[in-house]
Amino acid sequence: MKDNKFLFSASTCAFQIEGARNLGGRTDSIWDEFTKRNFTIPPVGVAKREINSIEVAADFYHKYKTDVRIMKKLGLNAFVYNMDWTRIFPWDSTTINPEGIKFYIDLFEQLTNAGIKPIPILYHWDTPMWAQLQGGFENRDIVEWFRTYAKTCFKYLGKYTDTWFVNDENSTFTQSAYLSDYLPPARNDKTAFVKALHNLNLTAAVAKEEFELAKVAQYLNKDAILGIDHDWNPAIDYEGDQNSVAVKQYNEWWMKLFLDPNLKGQYPQCFYDYIAEHKIKFEIPVQDLEYLKKHKLDFIGWNYYRPIYVSKNEHQDNKQKFIAPPSESHLKELTFVYPKDCDYTKWNWLIDESRLVSGAIELSQRYGKDIPIMIIENGMGDFDDKSQSMIKDYDRIDYLKRHIREVLKAREFVNMIGYSLWTYCDIYSPSGGYRKDYGLVSVNFNSPLRTRKPKLSYVWYQNVIKNEGKELEFDKKYLENEYQKILDEWDIFYQ
Questions:
Q1: What average pLDDT does range 25-53 have in this prediction?
Q2: Confidence (pLDDT) at 3
Q3: Fewer CB atoms inside 10 Å of the end CB: C or N, the chain?
Q4: d(CA 30, CA 127)
Q5: CA nearest 324: which of 293, 350, 362?
């Protein structure tokens, strides 16, 4: 990266926002199939999982020009976008969809012209159905299918940005989709998990190889960097011993297993032990390890929402101590607990910024003291009150304030290059559907036009970006007056 300016960004994801799922030449992915097959709508206002249609979502596909105007007004330096492999390769691994790649060229041009750096993530849980029908990430051939996709993106989009990611949240994806049926493809099979994880790691390595070749071909700036985005929730030992077996075991699995292969070119011992313990018929070829080591990624994206309390002891469902029953992990001597004497969102997600700085230091100590780190997701899902003219999401502002303060503090200790909040506008959430509000901008999902409206947090973040994070506290009266001014000028070009 040439520009050393700290990036204030927002992030979002194609299958959660884009819509137009079968327009512009696109075909189904595993998320299309999953949402159609598992469609379920709990009662209004209940914090339970909603699996709803993503056919239209926030209709970003048709409204991206409006959204870029909104982002420009917000003052974003960058916009992180989890792209859609299926839109570019909807039929097979070799035939480029011209409408699909042109959509992303147009989007990236709009962002660049608005002074907003596009930061693409090539893959986020959304495998094309044509690939899944051939085994998906369990099929070694997917590595070469992904190579073609990555190569195409670098060729046509490389001139717009010098900051890229390959994969996003491999931990949640592989464990919830291959050791469980919570996410598609809902395999719930240990062998499938091992194969999928290894092939995901290889897709990152082939992407890095193509990334370097794209620099030689001058599709990419020679200083461009390619990273991996990881969803590690730093552990807090419930018994108070941060050197406990539980913490060490957790970090082996939830940090090292998902970062070491693409940043160090090796697997931690726990992966080999897991394969042996479950008698899985799978060996990691020596040449694969050599290839991973040869094509290591450049930096870390980190999705920090919350830490996780871990314990080596079993715990009963004590309603005096916990807000939810303790949950066993798939590992021995490791239980997750949810202490009652902590702050939580309305969706029972822990609010605790205390491990952001120390966690960033842990990452830099393991993967290089100068390795760039960027917060790619951080935000709060809520039930926003949209019944009044002003959407006063003060709880979200407080959450963001607490976390951004720690991000900026972390810059004293690590090479923290940017902060991207989750998310730009309200979206489809895999854990909450359309009832879980994450955005700085509200989307009216009851309107066929999917009209946009800013929330108070939009005004707050706008002011934070203006002063480059030097001031995070703003008088309520000032914020609401500024908010009213924005609402007064929020004409059809922003809706």
A1: 94
A2: 57
A3: C
A4: 6
A5: 350
